[in-house]
Structures are given as C-alpha cells and as structure tokens.
Amino acid sequence: MKIAGRWFERREMGDGITLLWEPHVHPLIRCNIWFARGRDRDLLVDTGVGVASLRNEIADLIDKPLIAVATHIHYDHVGCLHEFDIRLMHRLEAPRMEDYREFAALTASGFPAELRASLSGYGLGEGDAPLLDALPHKGFDLAAYRVVSTHATGLVEEGDAVDLGDRRFSVFHLPGHSPGSIGLWEEASGTLFSGDAVYDGPLLDELPDSDIAVYLATIRRLRGMKVRVVHGGHDPSFGRDRLVEICDAYLALRG
Ligand SMILES: [Zn+2]
Ligand SMILES: [Zn+2]
C-alpha cells in the first residue's frame, strides 16, 4: 500500500467551525472531526481512528484550552482522544474507554462475524481487506492496531453545558446507537453536533452496544428539534428538512 502524503483533510464550514477527516480511511469508519472556535476555550468533537496524530494536525488551530468531547467511544471516534488534556464524555461510555476492549479493526476480518454480515452491504470487504487505502507512515502494521485507553477528565449528562466563553453548547443524551451517545446543541446558531445518533447515511443500530427501542425514542426527539444545521458523526452536514426525512425513514423502518 502507498504511504499517504498527509493524513487529514480539513474544510472551513463557517461559524468558526472546521471539519477535519481522514480521507484514506474506509467511509464506514471515517468519522467527522469537528473543531469549533470559542473566545475563551475551543471545542473538539471526536478524534478519528488514531493512526496519525490529530494533535499535531491541528497544532495551528490550538491557541487556548481545548475541550475534547467524545460523542461516544466507538473506535473511529476516539482514536486520538488520549492526546488531549480535557476529555469529556457521558458516564455510560467512560468505563469502556478506560480499559478499551471494544472491537477496533482496520481489516474486515477484525470485525465480529455477525457484524461483518450486517455490514456486508457497505463495502466492508472480505478477509484481510484493509479499511485504509494508504498507510499513515512507512512500516505501519494494520494488524497491530489498537485504541489507546484513556480516562475521561469529566463526565457530562443531559442538560450540562460546554461553555466556550462566547458560545454555549448543551449536552443532549441521544442513546440507541450506543448507550452514552451524546450530541452538542448550540441554540443560538441552531447547530447540532449529533455524533452517530443521526447522520446522512445508514444508521447503525445493530452494533453490540446498540438498542433499537431506545434509538427510536432518540430519533423521535431529534425529529422535533428546530435545527438549522446538523453536523453528524459521518457524511455531509444537512438542515432541518433533511433531518425530518432521515428520521421519518428510520421510524418507517423500525417504528
Ligand atoms: Zn458509532
Ligand atoms: Zn461512527
């Protein structure tokens, strides 16, 4: 496999928000990494698979305390979490991050068999098919990939605020995809960072820690939100009309 020239890409999204992503990672595990600039503190939402340093990548953006939030602890969202000094997540995710034993793989064969079957429609591939199309550096060993365990420096719950000085994000508990999935809602701008609770792609509700009945309630709640823009855990951002469509499709499928 070729060696990637650079590992991350980024795009300015307006509103002081920068999107970063890992173009050489398979779309199934290519999470959106969100950086939101505040006056006193900045916010980082999710951190990628962790095969290259996100902290080095965003060094030019860091000029004040940075609050890193994990929307949930699936490996494509927490790979670089350990690199940051302030690490927030929901209490239902935190214990599993401290001693990371969740499945985490960069080849199809590393996925549990049952999951492999349910993801076969998403181009997961067979056997040792890699989930990268380039390596982050020479000598990188796909089979040795692990998520670095780390502890939360703070726990957040429904209704808590993440305060950047001039911007304030409210924590929404959005369980179903995983038990402690959270979103961050900035009412003033109508912006929702939704993690994997909702994004514009197939919603995964059959993972080992998913719960469809609980997920349905979350989707009903999201459907009622007066959002201007949803920045999801995967796939392109979207507005309120598309949010309603995505929620309705899920409710029709599972409701
Ligand atoms: Zn997830
Ligand atoms: Zn994800």
Automatic annotation (TrEMBL):
Residues 30-234 form the Metallo-beta-lactamase domain. Pfam families: Lactamase_B. It comes from the Bacteria. GO terms for biological process: antibiotic catabolic process. InterPro entries: Metallo-B-lactamas, NDM-1-like, RibonucZ/Hydroxyglut_hydro. Belongs to the metallo-beta-lactamase superfamily. Class-B beta-lactamase family. This is Beta-lactamase domain protein. It comes from Parvibaculum lavamentivorans (strain DS-1 / DSM 13023 / NCIMB 13966).
